[in-house]
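hi support,

uploading two proteins for the ticket. first:
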Amino acid sequence: METDSPIIIRTATKEDAELIADISQQTFIDSFKNQNKQENIDKFIKEQFTKARLIEEVGAPNNIFLLAYKDNKIAGYVRLRENNNPPELQGTESIEIARLYAITEMIGKGIGKALMEESIKIAKAKNKKVIWLGVWKENERAFSFYTRFGFEKFAEHDFILGNEVQKDWLMKREL
């Protein structure tokens, strides 16, 4: 019988950088490999989503990483970013959910919900007016998840995955 163990969320430190880089790459691959060409994913990881670049993000100014654990195992993470507003939000005190992922085997266990709730709590504590994110328009599960939390589409932008230009929807929630 599976126990309903709590989800523990903590703020990541520079010591977590390698772990975050590893799970960032793995969750990205797991999330998008079935809907994209392998060569585009490989090129994106090699050129834009490198382990070195991901490690640099942890502890960098205007970045907050949260790690989620369940049953003493890493279960997911979120990256919040304060300095990357799209033109549509200029002048608005806002924070971006730059990435929010659960490890594949932890999907459906409340990890995303716990990370989202903590992200909203941090945004409110920082007196932000808006929390926003970008989501690939083909990612229906993620779009549905964000909609349940009150996010609404307000713009779109291009996302380059390898050699392919994809559309991301920008979604926001007023706080």
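and the second one:
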Amino acid sequence: MPEVGLESQVFRATLMCMKLLTSSEEFALLDRRGLAKLRCLHCNELFLLEKYRVERSIARGTGKYCSQTCARHARRTSQEVSCVNCNTTFRKHGVELKRTSAHFCSRSCSAKYNNKCKKFGATRRSKAEEYLCKLIRKDFPSFIVIQNDRNLLPSGLEIDIFIPHLKLAIELNGPIHYFPLYGMSKFEKIQAADVLKQLEIQSVGCDLLVIDISAYGYFKKAKVMLDGYYSTHVKPLLEK
């Protein structure tokens, strides 16, 4: 049987068992432990591998991955899917496929899609609101704490947290209250609603406390901030 040349071997490796990005000419010039450039068959990330290990995989016809984790995932059932947000094609293994019918190639795409498609005006209790209410109820069990109240103001605008005993309204404002994330038209409506809400709260004889959480994208970060803010600002206010 005629010996398979290096160029044919590299071509076969690229098609069958690995995505070898180093050219056949560059590969031939590498010494035994020289590093060849490959792309992981599972996660599509670039990585480097010694020449002798590449040649061994070519001879065995086995695939190459950037890590043992990717190798294990690749051995499981996988399927090619498209990112709902950016249409990038990628592979997901069986466990991940069962979690949701909407697939995202990254957390960034997931956040962008969910922010773009979520419905404004629908009651949605954030984790930050829930956590702050939990802190208040723990220290002041006799207080009635109402979440997402729409009955206090004439306009029907929603108040995140309302404590009737103290006539205190608390608003937790995320980035949509300070930045035009969904366009200037939506931003202007949100700002107008905030001004109207403030005026109406004053008109019914209540106080308003606004907590800016716009700089804390994840709940874990907001939780740390709220722990400190509650101790220094909210709790002393409630104790009066």
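thanks. also noticed: The chain has three domains: 1-75, 76-111, 127-239.
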